[in-house]
Amino acid sequence: MKLPGSVPMCLGIPGKVLRTFHEHDVLMGKVDFGGISKQVCLEHVPDVQIGQYVLVHVGFALSKIDEAEARQVFEFLDRMKQLDELGIASPGEGVSESPPAALGKAGAAP
Domains, the chain, ranges and CATH? Predict the structure, then answer.
């Protein structure tokens, strides 16, 4: 339900950069989302280093964040009961088998 005057928001998920590479002259990376790895475009964060965290929306890393901020986002999503919907394990839980819905929808970048 959309409230009058409300602004829709997009969900960004934090992930840890495992490796970087170029594909068709585009900076890409393998990013871990609580045990699930996805290929992500890193062009908006060209100075990102392996081991750093990025905030990802529909397959694009939009900004770098620190580990503490990434943990806060996961804790917030856990409190909101959104991690199950995204197929991501809560901090301290086992690895989920299904891909994050927000990152695996048709039309989203791989």
Answer: 13-103 (2.30.30.140)
- E strands, the chain, where? 13-23, 26-33, 36-41, 53-57, 60-65
Model confidence over 13-58: pLDDT tens digits? 999 999 999 999 999 999 999 889 999 999 999 999 999 999 999 9
Q: Which two tokens stand for residue 86?
A: 């995204």
* d(C-alpha 73, C-alpha 94), whole Å: 18
Task: Quote the pTM value.
Answer: 0.66
